[in-house]
Specification:
The complex is a heterodimer of chains A (809) and B (344). Chain A has 809 residues and is an alpha+beta fold. Chain A contains 22 helices and 42 strands. In chain A, the strands form eleven sheets. A seven-stranded mixed beta sheet of chain A has the order 30-33-34-38-37-36-35, with helices on both faces. In chain A, strands 3, 4, 5, 6, 11 and 12 form a six-stranded antiparallel beta sheet that branches. Chain A is elongated and about 130 Å long. Chain B is of the alpha+beta class. Chain B folds into two domains: 3-96; 115-341, Bira Bifunctional Protein, Domain 2 (BirA Bifunctional Protein, domain 2). Chain B is 42% helix and 19% strand. In chain B, α2 packs antiparallel against α4. The longest helix of chain B is centred in the N-terminal third of the chain and has 39 residues, at 59-97. The chains are: A alpha+beta (809), B alpha+beta (344). At the A-B interface, α9, α12, α14, α15 and β30 of A face α5, β1, β4, β5 and α8 of B.
């Protein structure tokens, strides 16, 4: 909220802070009202003065420019090149002289424009930050004094605070409210604004307009006054300046006064044109379902019956506390006014405002809570100003529906309690003094004090609130720092955190880099990437075809919760290619959503790797990237002490994977995910020959039973024997089928076996390949003899040859 | 000429020939071949020894001794020359094996933890040391846990503080990690110290806001808990996380689930609180929100607010990472650019 210090100064004397506004800003910030920005308008508009155009010529070298000789006071004349069209000789204009800095950090300098010297700029309202739009430069009235500073002329020699008022401090949403806060904090006198009225005792508001409040629950207080014969006209300069200074548009004297009083007292008001109050009757009630209402700005709304409205005999004339109706607002020819000043229940106003999407200064204040006890004062203040500025006869009586006076909250609190909660000594004397200073009316009751919060402090309800009041008055800096004693038995971290953290750290050690992606995705893009979800499911990953929707997404890219981690990783791969990161390996641990239920979270581990397959300078070919990723996953499985697993190469791979270069991971009895190379068709746009490979795994299945306890065995000191065996087989025979047989037939003596070489072509027949396996044998207790080894080798060859029909080479 | 003299001449000739051949050898293998040629089983000496039968009984030992002397000399020479040749050969092969040590090995990028998790893990370690344990919670959260139980009823202006993504009437993407404390209050025994890190979501996307970001939430519940305890814990955190000279200050603020509430500033570690771009030339950086647990939060969790007291704090992980590591644009956290991540 914009706060004008000059305005504040009307109610509390803070003149001594005008030269040091930051001190005042710090005081407010340190007591809970954060000042986000201090703008000294006098400084902001320095070097901007009123000038008069003495002479105006066409620019010799540019049709659209003019060259003006401008007097800027005390006989000084500047030559200024100007691009506007709306100025003529003799006009009074705003001149930004060299050295001026216009809003948006636009510095004015001495310059040469198409060969003509220019010392300054003639300004438009937009350039001066006075309005959003403007056509042409600002032309001032003829009586504007040449040479006077712009800030002085416009009454802008003020200091503005941009105040961040937290939702609890509704009492500070006005100049008077903030002045009251300052008077409490600084123990200064508070001056109330004038509200004397000249009433016509013989005329009666009540006789003129009837009032009925049907929904007193949502409208506990409703007051109004009738004024006859006002003259609607433009506001005087002082009022215009004030409302414009805090960012409102000046409309006319009546509307400006209601807005001004709202910004002054924090209490919204509404002025109705009495002509338009059908049947001269005001009814405060819920809307009728289905009825239409058009707001002041011309927007039509259909009401559902939950909204509190002000209605005349026929129709709603205002949405209570939110916005007035177009049908009954003040017009230029309005003469008779009914001024409303009410207390509407905060929840009711907020609900209506949120539901219809109408955000107004009025709704903002009502939904945070106005001061119900201040209503009659504010109504009188408003009528006082209207009379002063627009004349009119004020009727003698007042409507004031207030059947159940809202009571100030009172409760007990002791200085000992405050002391305990703050962790510092607080004695009765200082406590009582602080409470009195904050107008909390402390009364000693036994060991405690009974505290009664003024009605405008809607946030003070209980003793905890007093802890904060006392602390902020004495500064939070006064509270000591102390480490609390540990009086509990520590509990372990949640298992998922521990497991995922170990997993992350293991993978980082394997030189994978961790990615974190948005948990939402673009539904269409994701489904076009994932393709046939049944095929994906066969590869262990269930993605719901109907992802969890976000009701109010920011845009299409964030419209649903992700069903797989891969579309996000694919985006990362594309990003990295775009910026030339041609090699990389990422993993992500995160959740997919909507697998089994709408709100379920499905933890996943996914990988993406891409980039060169040749060693740089040795030019030796590495194993295909997809097999490298598979190897990394197997390292993880070993780290998790998995006993066995296998890779199934099904005929129907997911659509986005290369059908011949992908496999599902069969682990502990079921398929829990896959590894595979991106289908060449999916990377056409990337224009790269480098492979891109992915994997996605069900993390809960992978981590089930983790961490596994383990014990280690002994170490054999016997000789380790190396043996190679090569088999010639059909190209379709998988290496792991041979390895399985080697393992089965050699039993405990086999320490390790792996594929040592694969070879095709040469002397081999078409469609055949040779696979060489390297094996290591060792016995725990004795050195293996040649005879034993030969027998073992023979057994292996026999088993493999007979089971798979392959020949040893 | 007698036979002895003749054999003696022969021996001398073999000796000279062998010495010449040994010396002429250019490789250790060549030398070994020469040794075999002269000293081997079928070598020149063996041939010569066969002729010893022609000598008289008296002459044989004398000649045998002579032969042995020559053989020993040759063995010595062989050893000496072999050593020299081997040394030369080793040197040659060392020179041969010389490589440009600036060539790369198997090129690899170091794996890195994502900075967000790096910060979370560091915070978990810091707070674990003073007895906090991690709890996680669902990202799709019931309205009650995200709002109502945190003293944010429907139609309360505090709901405006956060732009919420809705899944349905009853469910939201959690806007804060605070719901984690409610689950703990409902399910765990007291006193407790719990830390809740994780992703949160708000409908806001610009240069300083991401629609998904991360927070960490801490709550401590005990019989008596004070603002001094809160300041003590936060001062400990600031020193551990930012550096031993970093100080904290609290400013009054408002959060619906704490009373009193405060914003936490740390003195700027970048400029040592002298004022710089990072701290907006104020010397202070806002890093957290905190307060004493609001009695309504205890009530909502079914606890007696007169019996238990608590403190709570919450921090934005991205914010901490920006401050600690100087990240210039928060959008970098979601791009997963290898060059960005590689710098951590």
């Amino acid at each position: 909220m914009q706060i004008s210090l000059k305005w504040i100064n009307d109610y509390v004397n803070i003149e001594n802070y005008f030269s040091k506004p930051q001190e005042l800003a710090d005081l407010l910030t340190n007591t809970g009202l954060e000042v986000e920005e201090v703008s000294d308008l006098g400084k902001r508009y320095a070097s901007i003065v009123i000038g008069q155009i003495l002479k105006l010529d066409k620019h010799p070298d540019a049709d659209r420019l003019t060259v003006c000789q401008v007097e800027t006071g005390s006989g000084s004349v500047q030559q200024i090149v100007c691009g506007a069209k709306n100025h003529k000789q003799g006009d009074k204009v705003m001149v930004a002289l060299p050295g001026a800095v216009l809003p948006g950090d636009f510095a004015i300098k001495q310059s040469v424009i198409r060969g003509v010297e220019s010392s300054g700029m003639l300004c438009s309202e937009k350039e001066l930050g006075l309005s959003e739009e403007s056509s042409g430069i600002m032309i001032l009235p003829e009586d504007a004094p040449v040479g006077e500073k712009f800030s002085l002329y416009k009454g802008l020699d003020d200091i503005l605070f941009e105040l961040k008022v937290t939702p609890n401090r509704a009492d500070c949403l006005s100049h008077f409210g903030l002045a009251r806060e300052l008077s409490n904090l600084l123990s200064l006198d508070l001056r109330y604004p004038e509200n004397e009225l000249q009433v016509e005792a013989g005329l009666s508001t009540k006789e003129c307009i009837s009032l009925e409040v049907k929904d007193a629950e949502n409208c506990p207080r409703y007051a109004g006054r009738f004024i006859e014969g006002v003259k609607v006209a433009p506001s005087p300069a002082w009022l215009r300046t004030r409302v414009e200074a805090i960012g409102l548009n000046s409309i006319n004297n009546v509307v400006d006064v209601t807005n001004y009083v709202m910004m002054e007292m924090g209490q919204p008001l509404h002025a109705f044109d009495q002509r338009e109050i059908k049947g001269n009757s005001i009814l405060v009630d819920k809307a009728q379902a289905g009825e239409k209402f058009t707001s002041l700005d011309g927007t039509e709304y259909t009401l559902d019956g939950s909204e509190l409205v002000i209605r005349d005999q026929e129709r709603p004339v205002a949405l209570a506390g939110v916005v007035g109706g177009k049908n009954s607002g003040v017009q230029d020819d309005t003469t008779n006014l009914f001024i409303e000043c009410a207390y509407f229940k905060p929840e009711s106003v907020r609900k209506t405002s949120r539901k219809l999407g109408i955000e107004t200064d009025s709704a903002y204040r009502f939904s945070r809570g106005v001061d119900p006890s201040g209503i009659s004062f504010v109504l009188d203040r408003c009528c006082h100003l209207i009379q002063k500025l627009a004349g009119g006869k004020l009727y003698g009586d007042i409507h004031d529906f207030y059947p159940k006076g809202l009571e100030a909250k009172s409760f007990l609190v002791s200085s000992d309690y405050i002391s305990q909660r703050l962790g510092m000594p607080v004695d009765d004397e200082s406590f009582e003094k602080a409470l009195a200073q904050l107008k909390l009316k402390p009364v000693k009751e036994g060991q405690s004090y009974r505290v009664t919060a003024p009605l405008y402090r809607v946030d003070i309800e209980r003793k905890e609130d007093i802890v904060e009041e006392y602390a902020r008055l004495h500064s939070y800096d006064a509270i000591p720092e102390k480490m609390p004693e540990l009086a509990l038995e520590p509990t372990p971290h949640e298992k998922d955190y521990e497991l995922q953290r170990s997993l992350r750290e293991f993978l980082v050690g394997q030189n994978f880099t961790e990615a974190l992606n948005y948990n939402f995705e673009n539904k269409l893009k994701a489904s076009s990437f994932l393709g046939d979800l049944d095929k994906l499911k066969a590869y262990g990953i269930t993605a719901n075809p109907e992802p969890v929707q976000i009701l109010n997404p920011l845009n299409e890219d964030f419209s649903v919760m992700r069903t797989s981690l891969l579309p996000g990783l694919m985006k990362n791969v594309e990003h990295n290619f775009r910026y030339g990161r041609h090699k990389g390996q990422l993993f992500e641990i995160g959740y997919a959503f909507g697998r089994d239920s709408k709100f379920g979270q499905d933890p996943r581990l996914a990988f993406a790797a891409w980039g060169e397959t040749l060693d740089l300078w040795t030019k030796k070919e590495k194993a295909p990237l997809v097999l490298q990723l598979k190897e990394s996953i197997e390292s993880l499985l070993k780290e998790l002490r998995a006993k066995s697993w296998s890779w199934k190469q099904e005929a129907d791979a997911p659509d986005f994977l290369h059908p011949g270069r992908s496999a599902a991971l069969f682990f502990e009895g079921k398929i829990i995910g896959f590894v595979g190379e991106l289908h060449p068709r999916m990377k056409e746009a990337l224009k790269t020959k480098e492979p891109i490979v992915f994997a996605e795994l069900q993390l809960d299945a992978l981590l089930r039973g983790q961490p596994k306890a383990f014990r280690v065995g002994g170490v054999s000191r016997m000789q380790m024997v190396e043996r190679d065996l090569a088999f010639v087989c059909d190209g379709a025979v998988r290496s792991d089928s041979i390895i399985d047989l080697i393992k089965k037939s050699s039993g405990k003596l086999l320490k390790e076996v792996y594929v040592y070489d694969q070879f095709e072509g040469g002397s081999l027949k078409e469609g055949q390949k040779s696979l060489t396996f390297r094996m290591y044998f060792q016995d725990e207790n004795e050195t293996l003899e040649e005879k034993q080894l030969s027998a073992l080798q023979e057994k292996i060859i026999q088993t493999v040859s007979s089971k798979l029909g392959v020949n040893v080479r | 000429m007698n036979i002895y003299a003749m054999l003696q001449d022969k021996l001398q000739a073999i000796r000279e020939e062998a010495v010449a051949a040994f010396k002429a050898a250019t490789s250790s293998k060549d030398l070994y071949d020469q040794k075999v040629k002269y000293l081997g089983k079928k070598g020149s000496f063996s041939e010569l020894m066969k002729e010893m039968g022609k000598l008289s009984k008296d002459e044989r030992p004398k000649f045998g001794q002579l032969v042995n002397e020559v053989k020993n000399t040759l063995e010595d020479l062989f050893k000496e020359l072999t050593d020299a040749l081997k040394e030369k050969e080793l040197n040659a092969s060392l020179e041969d094996e010389r490589i440009d040590m600036s060539l790369p090995g198997n090129r690899m990028r170091l794996g890195k933890k994502h900075p967000i998790n790096m910060v979370i893990d560091e915070l978990v370690d810091i707070f674990s040391r003073i007895g906090f344990s991690v709890r996680l919670g669902p990202l799709i959260e019931r309205d009650r846990y995200n709002f109502e139980a945190l003293n944010i009823p429907a139609d309360h202006p505090a709901r405006d503080m956060q732009d919420t993504f809705y899944i349905d009437e009853q469910h939201v993407l959690r806007t804060q990690t605070s719901p984690i404390q409610i689950h703990s209050l409902e399910n765990e025994s007291l006193p407790l110290r719990v830390l809740g890190p994780g992703a949160v979501f708000r409908s806001d996307y610009d240069v300083s806001h991401l629609p998904m970001f991360h927070q960490i939430e801490g709550i401590l519940v005990d019989k008596e808990v004070s603002m001094a305890d809160l300041k003590g814990i936060l001062a400990y955190f600031a020193k551990e996380f930012f550096g031993p000279n970093v100080k904290i200050r609290l400013r009054p603020s408002f959060f619906p689930f704490t009373e009193p509430s405060a914003e936490v500033d740390c003195s700027c570690a970048v400029c040592d609180a002298k004022g710089c771009r990072m701290c907006g030339h104020t010397g202070w950086i806002e890093v957290a929100g905190c307060g004493l647990v609001h009695p309504n939060v205890f009530k909502e969790a079914g606890l007696d607010a007169e019996k238990w007291q608590g403190l709570a704090f919450g921090m934005g992980i991205e914010r901490l990472a920006v401050v600690k590591y100087g990240v210039r644009d928060i959008r970098l956290f979601n791009e997963n650019d290898m060059d960005f991540l590689g710098q951590f």
